[in-house]
From TrEMBL:
Record function comment: Catalyzes the reversible formation of fructose 6-phosphate from dihydroxyacetone and D-glyceraldehyde 3-phosphate via an aldolization reaction.
Protein name: Fructose-6-phosphate aldolase
Organism encoding this protein: Trabulsiella odontotermitis
SUPFAM superfamilies: Aldolase
One cellular component term from this protein's GO annotations in UniProt: cytoplasm
Amino acid sequence: MELYLDTANVAEVERLARIYPLAGVTTNPSIVAASKEPLWELLPRLQKAVGENGTLFAQTMSRDAAGMVAEAKRLNNAVPGIIVKIPVTAEGLAAIKLLKREGIPTLGTAVYSAAQGLLAALAGAKYVAPYVNRVDAQGGNGIQMVQELQTLLELHAPQSKVLAASFKTPRQALDCLLAGCEAITLPLDVAQQMLGTPAVESAIEKFEQDWKNAFGNLNL
Ligand code: E4P
């Protein structure tokens, strides 16, 4: 499976790339805007932070297919190997089809239903990103959407992968992986929650205390 961080925080990517088995970094326009750094300067820094084998994702801003294709080409020229995120609108679907013909890999984003995600995959998107928590926040069932999308892709578009996105808890991410998703992208807080339960630290402190009581030091 592929684990991505959903962030534009270069320092945190650098720190966590040492620790986590990362496949790369995903961004979206809000994430880039929060960094206040121009995209074209940010992307090379993110690439360096995640390592040359890490895959970057960046999103187009145009609303029409021709504009999306032009931006995708610019991204592809600037960062070889980048996956271009295209919102799955009517124009977005047209752009995904055109980019597939051009050999530029895409991710269909802003996916709020299994049907929408299936269309992106059939149009040729390499990845499809359903928004789990945003669907939950609307009173829907994000995990159920992902389960359906995963099954639909396995049956009808096996060349595309679900890259599940929009998480607020590790539980949501695990449920997507249990549904068979091959990729997830986590915001920094959820990535850290996966490792940082307070019980772990107190278990280690107890081991140290017991050892010190018996041997007077912490040496092996
Ligand atoms: C991924 O494609 C999305 O940009 C992202 O995961 C959305 O996450 P959010 O709902 O936490 O903003």
